Amino acid sequence: MSALIPDFVPLWTLILVLGIFFYVLLDGFDLGVGILYGFAPDAASRGLLMNSIAPIWDGNETWLVLGGLALLAAFPLAFSILLPAVYFPVLVMLLALVFRGVAFEFRYKDVPHRTFWDHAFSYGSALATFSQGIVIGAYIQGFKIEGRQFAGSSLDCFTPFSLFTGVALLFGYGLLGAGWIILKTEGSLQEWARRQARRCLIGVLIAIGIVSVWTPLADPDIAHRWFAWPRIAFFSPVPLVTLLLAIWEWRSLGKSSAHAAPFLAAVGLFVLSYSGIAISLWPMIVPHRFTLWQAASSPGTQLFLLTGTLFLLPVILMYTSWSYWVFRGKVRADIGYH
Predict the structure, then answer these.
(1) Nearest to 10 by CA among 335, 302, 269, 246
(2) Number of domain units in the chain
């Protein structure tokens, strides 16, 4: 019977990739707004920042659930290895996201302690981002595996490289958040966001440069994949387009008439960074050990789960698109979250 079932691994890979990417992009910019929130110039500005993400922030986290469930259902071997390997940063990330959500609500309900909840919202956003960066860094470096099980310590994920990627992601999400603020606000707050975006862009470019050098030096396989002929000819446009996007981003931040360009350029930089990781590791889902096909569940299981997923995925896309369409335009102080 299984011989009659087609290979669903490419489709499940696409679902997993899209789930993770949409989470990084959508929750990334509202986490970035939260990071920058702690540096906002005044209370009125903080109110506008909160209003800019109030209608959509919780829906953005739907993609985290989708990505996690896709990994568990379609690639259970990878899930059983990756989760113990990054248990602590994932736990910290989830607790920070919960604390951040509580702070979001209580900021409006508990007015006497609003300053406390403001700090909780900002620090929760930063801690969740830093934890995600650690997970990314640990994933790129790989894990100690014996047979089909993780054989290392739960603290192995904390390395100089993963700590660096944690800091790098703070700048990355900060750039996305600043782009969103530029898109959604006007006047002095928008100009403030442009200044923050320039600082974050510098940090992002430094991080991209260091990671681009660090990973090939640390892993000969990655170096061979990028620089061996003829692959170098196919992959050379990636750093070139990254440079062009960085120039576009920098110039658009200096133009008061550019409202959407800073955010779109930041998204482009994330797309290229995401593709760089994929190029370095493909087709491995457990780095340097198991491919997507080796870690996949049975074709019958994938087919059964795909039935519900292909029904729910368009629903998620539709309500996400609808919420962004309904709340399009600039935010105002007199209309917001209460």
Answers:
(1) 302
(2) 1
